[in-house]
Design brief:
By secondary structure, the protein is of the alpha+beta class. Helices cover about 30% and strands about 10% of the residues.
Length: about 80
């Protein structure tokens, strides 16, 4: 799921079934989303990853993402176990 709010593009919930990983599917999905965001004038893509998810952080680094020096804050309105 991706979106553009007029200032930044956001990638949310990119996933590849574990049995299909390491076949270039995630890279291809990201490439397609980036192309679509570029076409509508999006200047930058943001995404959030839990700090403990080191394998996906490394994936995003390999395809050109960098860690931004920002603080992500949230507030739960309902408990869901995360």
């Amino acid at each position: 799921m991706a979106g553009y709010e007029g200032h930044r593009g956001w990638i949310n919930y990119l996933a590849v079934d574990p049995s299909h990983r390491l076949k270039g599917i995630g890279r291809a999905l990201m490439h397609q989303v980036e192309q679509q965001l570029r076409e509508i004038g999006c200047p930058k893509i943001n995404l959030q990853v839990r700090t403990g998810n080191t394998s996906i952080i490394e994936f995003y680094k390999r395809i050109g993402f960098q860690i931004d020096e920002v603080v992500s804050m949230g507030r739960r309105l309902e408990e869901d176990g995360d």
